[in-house]
């Protein structure tokens, strides 16, 4: 895949080689993310960071990644504060904002909206989540995390067993991650959700066609040899009414007791975050915070590396990162998780 000038809209555009290219560059970003070195490779470049749906980590990590490469960030948040609220089309917004930026990261509540926007854009557009459809950069950081965590335990991705749990219908992270994992070999998927929130058929078909072993269930069972448990939040913003979401909140929880009962002692615990910590939901309990297998914060840290790699690739500077290196002048704490 030729990344320079390309949009990143869906995981479908990758193959194993292009994923490996992204991961190799992400590894090279560690000294900058750890503030051991700086690079000014994107000095003068502008990121248009357009988030028309709530976001903390994805939005800030896109911005941080761009800043760490020496670039500037211009941000728009919320639909109501943008001209989309006045009826402007995505095409027009894209034509205008792409003149102001060198690359755009965008999140929007409607499926397919980021691809529609990209048609009007003159610069590369990176999908930061389009409705319940896709979240390709999250899937890449999830897979990068899975590879690292499993390597620590002496395993690879091929042949692993992953349990995905919670809202698999509306959770775009599990859609994109499943499609990405489908490119590997012989994976066991245990998909645990209320029946009404099961993984969409379109994703199950991809897994089936690639020959993976898939179990769809509404019971937390058969997970005792899982390598990864990937918990998700009930996506309340995608339900017609909040009351409907209430029916499913708190149904599939993970806490220390459940983990010990159903999983092996080194099953890696993941969650795209935010976890819903309200008592009625609490899908991933704080009592697991000290468990060394809890990878959620390492996962979030990895998002910066992956987004740095994607910016370097789409803007065609991946071979010049070190050339523009300079020293860090300020006191900086030791960061190890990147
Ligand atoms: C996820 C999202 O927005 O799809 N969050 C994220 O980007 N890390 C998951 C969620 O909101 O539940």
TrEMBL record:
Function summary: Catalyzes the condensation of carbamoyl phosphate and aspartate to form carbamoyl aspartate and inorganic phosphate, the committed step in the de novo pyrimidine nucleotide biosynthesis pathway.
Pathway(s) this gene product operates in, as recorded in its UniProt entry: Pyrimidine metabolism; UMP biosynthesis via de novo pathway; (S)-dihydroorotate from bicarbonate: step 2/3
Organism: Pseudidiomarina maritima
Protein name, UniProt field: Aspartate carbamoyltransferase
Similarity remark: Belongs to the aspartate/ornithine carbamoyltransferase superfamily. ATCase family.
Signal peptide: none
Molecular function via GO: amino acid binding; aspartate carbamoyltransferase activity
BP-aspect Gene Ontology terms: 'de novo' pyrimidine nucleobase biosynthetic process; 'de novo' UMP biosynthetic process; amino acid metabolic process
Keywords of this entry: Pyrimidine biosynthesis, Transferase
UniProt xrefs under PROSITE patterns: CARBAMOYLTRANSFERASE
Cellular component GO terms, alphabetical: cytosol
Aspartate/ornithine carbamoyltransferase Asp/Orn-binding domain mapped to chain residues: 158-313
Reactions the enzyme catalyzes: carbamoyl phosphate + L-aspartate = N-carbamoyl-L-aspartate + phosphate + H(+)
UniProt superkingdom: Bacteria
Enzyme Commission code(s) on record: 2.1.3.2
Domain Aspartate/ornithine carbamoyltransferase carbamoyl-P binding: 7-147
InterPro entries according to UniProt: Asp/Orn_carbamoyltranf_P-bd, Asp/Orn_carbamoylTrfase, Asp/Orn_carbamoylTrfase_sf, Asp_carbamoyltransf, Asp_carbamoyltransf_Asp/Orn-bd
